[in-house]
Amino acid sequence: MGRRSFLQMGVGAAALGLADGLIPGLARAAGGLVALVHTQAAGDNGPVDSMIEKLKQLAGEKGFQYRAVYAQDPATYETVFRTLADAGAAIIVSTFNEVAEPFKALAPSYPNTKWIQLFADPFTPTIANVVTVSYDYYLGCYLSGMFAAKVSKTGKIGYIGGISIPPLNADFNALKAGALSVNPNAAVTSAFAGSFQDPAKGQEIATQMYNDGIDYIQTDSAATDGGIIAAANEKAGRMVSGISPAQYKLGPKSVIALVSLDFGQSLYNEVTKALDPSWKGDHMPTGLGTGVIDFIASPVFARQGPSELAAEAQEAWADLEKAKKGILDGTIKVPFSTTL
Fold it and tell me: I need a labelling partner for 31 at 20 to 30 A (CA). Which of 50, 66, 156, 160 fits?
């Protein structure tokens, strides 16, 4: 099954259309279907594309049926989840904090369905058939800040997030702490696009940052990242630290590194666990050393980026690896602050 044969639906159109489109196929797959309900559009060169590809891979390996459903309108989230659960979906995976309340409302009524929320706060109390997964992305941002302070020519570092929410605020604060640990005089500036799906806004903000002398921007805004990378591509020496290897092709001479959050690998891991009969609800914090979050240098930039910056990046990397080990063994304490 290729991407074009996925069930991709803008569900805000009508609940009736959703039911007509989903139920016939789902009824035939009752008890075996794994469904991904993604709340941001595919084509983002990042989290959603990665999750769809990994779901496809795992379905091929394990032999289950799968669907990827784009839930565009928050008002219909509950309808989407209920339709899937009524049809007997074995596992429902969904994304980001906005699906927490529908999960809490519906999961107890569908105990035979396993529910997985990626990028989630823990439920208190936990629900027996729900796993929530959080990501310590801020740890990678701390390393990015250290790296930025080593390669920046101006000492001016930027951060662009999608929306100012506590986890992203913590990412910025960790980036700043990492930069200041290397260069106490570094100037670290934050901005938020107000959306995770607005490349034009990302490009506008990034262009202004670069014009103000910032030469390194850490992205944290999903599809909005595309505009940030486009702004970096306009002039040599502008650097971006992105989120996904898919972004290398967008900026081979500007995407110097990644604070990688592999949503696809996380989905793969969590669905694999859920296929085990012993699976039970819990909260799963995910950080460095898990294969999901890491800070990595771009091999494409090393080959195609400005030679001076590529050399400086390579020279700085040994210190980054030491810092990464320090975070993992606890000798480096990264602050977690959600206040801007």
Answer: 50
